[in-house]
User: Fold this.
Amino acid sequence: MPLSQATAVPGAPSGPDDARARARRLAPGLAARAGSHDASGTFPEADFDELRANGFMGLMTPVRLGGCGASFADYTAVATELAAGAGATALVFNMHAAVTGALAHAPEELVRQLGAPETFSASRDRVLARAAEGALYAVAMSERGAGSRLSRVTTAYRRTDGGFRVTGSKAFVSGAGHADAYLVAARDAASAEPRVSYFLVPAGSGVRVEPTWDSMGMRATGSHDVHFDAEVPQDALVGGVEGLAVLLAQVMPQWLVASYAAVYVGVARAALREGTAHLRERGLHTLPAVRARMGRADAAVAAAALVVAEAARRVTESPGEPETNHWVWRAKLTAGDTAAEVASSVLEAAGTSATRRGHPLERIYRDARCGALQPATSDVCADWLGVAALGGDPEHDTPVPRW
Assistant:
C-alpha cells in the first residue's frame, strides 16, 4: 500500500519481552509454511499478515509514535526467534528493521552535527509512525557488478525543483513488490566524488520490479531486481543531508552488518531442531558419531548466540564505540559461518533421506549457506577483523574502500 494509506494496527507488543514471546509463539506457524514458499519461490504474505497483526512492523518505532520502542538487543532476540521458524521471513523483516532501527536510534546530537535540517525530526517520525501502522520498508542497496559497496553504486540522483530524481537499478531487494517504500542508496550525479545518499522512495510510480529471484537459498525473500526512475520530494532524503551513507556505515555498521547475524543464529537453531526430530524418528540418535556431531553443533550454536548477544548488548549500551564495532563484525562472521557449518554437519548426520527436496533440513541447509555470503561476507568480515588484530585501521588501511 502507498505510505499515505497505511492503516493503524491494534495490539502492538506491550514491550520487548512481550515481542519476543509473541515471536516465539509465531515461529511454529512460520515453520509450517516455510517449505511451500521455498518450493514455489513465493513471498510469505501470510507470515507478514501475522507480523502486522502482532505489531512487529513497529518494533523499532518509539512508544510515543505507537511502536514498541525496542533496542538493537531487543531486535536481535526477536529476529532470532522468527528465524528459528522461517529464515526467509526473518531476513525480510531484518531489512525493515534496519530502516526503522537506524532512523529510531540515530543520535539526535550526531544528526544535528551532520547538518540535518529542522524538518528532520518530523519527517523521521512520519516514517516510523507509518511502520507502526503496518508499512513495510525494503533496502535497495546492492547492484549487479558492485555488490553492496556504497562507493561503487551507479544508481544516481539529481536535484529537481521539487526535490530529487532517483534513477538506476538494484539487485537482491528482499521484499521487492511487497514493500511500501525502498531505502535506496544513490550517488550524486553532479559530483565527481562518490557522494552517496539514502532516499526513501515510495512504491508506485517510477518503481518497477523485475522478477529475477530464483536462488539456491532464502528463496521466499522475493529478492528481485528493482528499477527506479522516480521523482521524490525533499524529505525523501534520509537524514535531510546529502552524502551521509558511507559515513553512517562506518560509524554505525550494526544495521548493515550485525543485524543479519541474529537471523543466522535462528537458522542454526532450526537446523538443530529439525535434525533432532529426524534423528530420533529414524532411531539414529543412539549412534555415538551422531551424538558427537549434535553435541558439537549444540555448542557451536550456543557460542554464536553469545557472540551475537554480546554485540547486541554493546550496540545498545555503547553504539559507535570502536570495541562495539569490533563485536559487530565478529557477530556477522561467527553467525554466518556457524549456520553453514552446523547445517552441513547436521544434514550429514541425518543422511541421504534428509537431502530430498521438501525435507526441512534440505531447505535449512540451503538457507544457512547464504549466511556467509550476505554482506558483509565472511571473508570481508575476517579481513576487517584481521586488519584490526594486526594494529591497523580496517576502514582506511586497505587498498580497496571497505564501503
Summary: The chain has three domains: 3-132, 137-243, 257-389. The domain at 257-389 is CATH 1.20.140.10 (Butyryl-CoA Dehydrogenase, subunit A; domain 3). Residues 288-317 form the longest helix (30 residues).
